[in-house]
From TrEMBL:
Keywords: ATP-binding, Ligase, Nucleotide-binding, Protein biosynthesis. The gene is gatA. It comes from Megasphaera hexanoica. This is Glutamyl-tRNA(Gln) amidotransferase subunit A. It is an enzyme of class 6 (ligase). Belongs to the amidase family. GatA subfamily. Signal peptide: none annotated. Pfam families: Amidase. The active site is at K77 (charge relay system), S152 (charge relay system), S176 (acyl-ester intermediate). Allows the formation of correctly charged Gln-tRNA(Gln) through the transamidation of misacylated Glu-tRNA(Gln) in organisms which lack glutaminyl-tRNA synthetase. The reaction takes place in the presence of glutamine and ATP through an activated gamma-phospho-Glu-tRNA(Gln). Heterotrimer of A, B and C subunits.
Length: 487
């Protein structure tokens, strides 16, 4: 049996085949059953979820129209503020912090009668690629519990892949939606920078961060994007534009479209079975009438190094506010400087400290020009490479990650190996472009992800190309690894 989807459950709710309360209760029961093994959630929101579900049932009973997402249980990454709920960012320093306000995406979802079963686990402050850096627990990959679900949005990905939620929200600074989507066999979208408001998203790298969805299929991805996209005056980087209906982009046709394949993403280090699955995907597109165009992007090889200067630099600035004074965890000290030091020493985990120190170093006097300024120049060259490639192509096709998920603990003492896993994803954040990861195969029972990259604000083309592949490669459809919720 295939995974349940937002659009299928919406039809069941509207046709009164199941009530929103019954549906929510079934997902709560599922969560209670598998959560001890998966550890995807940091909080439980069942009381509010059941109340929201009852309100949806009331609307249906009154003959009112309901939104596509209304009454369908989801989950929210614990880096997105929800009023009155803990927002820990997976960190001890925010262990007891309750958000006083809603993020804009939550306000938008509230207006559509959304249901959240809780906040999901993540790498601390979104810094990591495995969800092993959480201060609270390690999340497990539902396809194999010995493996990571990816990160930093691993809890959001695992919750959907384990059937604990139908959809979820994550955030993506350097691949934190796309990589866990690949590892967990889901559709994961990083929208164009500025398409979705960052207001209420706790910042890691402000010029890189973007909120996006995890779903079981491309149609659901379009539904969630419809819900969260749009201009927001509270976010100075939000792009004013007319509201779009991304479901209209779901056309099963790529005839005549040009799909670019950058050779720089298919280099040494890409696993052979992943390469084979991607080559088969390229053949699928050829058979469907798309033109495959080899492209060169010479500055991609510098992207990872530039990212790991720019992102920590921004993190160093953004995380300066966690000092034990205004909010969050506070350690006792003999004076204010001692209190600062102890608060940040005890409150932050090792990966966050590593990135703060790296970022502070590259911004310091005497090193700013040598590192940060040079990295920003490389960022411009990376953006130009994408612009040049996308002038001749509709989308680009690359791996999402060089390999499938790795074992929990495998890279514990090797941060460099962990960083290298982001090589296929970080450049999109530097360029601010949209990217989507969709399943394209399996290796030893673990999903392989394919990344499609689009032009800025052209999510429609991206969704169309992804949807066409999904509709024509039904051989890749597998039941959820832990079984399906019985309705």
């Amino acid at each position: 049996m295939e995974a349940l989807t937002i659009h299928a459950l919406h039809d069941k709710l509207v046709n009164k085949e199941i009530s929103a309360v019954e549906l929510t209760e079934k997902f709560i029961a599922r969560k209670d059953t598998v959560e001890p093994d998966i550890k995807a959630f940091l909080s439980d929101n069942r009381k509010n979820a059941l109340e929201a579900a009852a309100a949806v049932d009331k609307k249906i009973a009154a003959g009112e129209a309901i939104a596509d997402m209304a009454g369908v249980p989801g989950a929210i990454k614990d880096v997105i503020c929800v009023a009155g709920q803990n927002t820990t960012c997976g960190s001890k320093i925010l262990e007891h912090f309750k958000s006083p306000y809603n993020a804009t995406v939550i306000e938008k979802l509230n207006a559509l009668d959304y249901i959240s079963l809780g906040k999901t686990n993540m790498d601390e402050f979104a810094m990591g690629s495995s969800t092993e850096n959480s201060a609270y627990q390690i999340t497990h990959n539902p396809w194999n519990l010995d493996y990571v679900p990816g990160g930093s949005s691993g809890g959001s990905a695992a919750a959907v892949a384990a059937g604990e939620a139908v959809w979820s929200l994550g955030s993506d600074t350097g691949g934190s939606i796309r990589q866990p989507a690949a590892y967990c066999g889901l559709v994961g979208l990083k929208p164009t920078y500025g398409l979705v408001s960052r207001y209420g998203l706790v910042a890691y790298g402000s010029s890189l961060d973007q909120i996006g969805p995890f779903t079981n299929d491309v149609e659901d991805c379009a539904i969630v994007l419809n819900a969260i996209a749009g201009h927001d005056a509270k976010d100075s980087t939000s792009i004013p534009q007319e509201k779009k209906d991304y479901k209209k982009a779901l056309i099963n046709d790529v005839k005549g479209m040009k799909i670019g394949v950058p050779e720089e993403f298919f280099v040494e280090g890409l696993d052979d079975q992943c390469r084979k699955a991607l080559e088969e995907a390229i053949d699928t597109y050829k058979k469907l009438g798309a033109e495959i165009v080899p492209v060169k992007m010479p500055h991609m090889k510098y992207g990872l190094a530039a990212y790991y200067i720019i992102a920590p630099a921004e993190a160093s600035s953004n995380l300066a506010r966690y000092d034990g004074v205004g909010f969050g965890f506070r350690a006792d000290g003999t004076d204010i400087v001692d209190m600062y030091r102890k608060t940040r020493t005890e409150g932050f985990g090792p990966e966050v400290k590593r990135r703060i120190m790296l970022g502070t170093y590259v911004l310091s006097s005497g090193y700013y020009d040598a590192y940060y300024l040079r990295a920003m120049k490389v960022r411009t060259l990376v953006k130009q490479d994408f612009d040049n490639a996308l002038r001749t192509c509709d989308v680009l096709l690359t791996p999402t990650a060089p390999d499938t998920a790795f074992k929990i603990g495998q890279n514990d003492n090797n941060p460099l190996a962990m960083y290298l896993g982001d090589v296929c994803t970080v450049t999109l954040n530097l360029a601010g472009l949209p990217g989507i990861s969709i399943p394209c195969g399996f290796k030893n029972g673990l999903p392989i992800g394919m990344q499609l990259i689009g032009k800025a604000l052209d999510e429609e083309t991206l969704l169309r190309v992804a949807y066409t592949f999904e509709q024509n490669r039904t051989d890749l459809k597998k039941p959820l690894p832990m079984g399906e919720v019985e309705l």
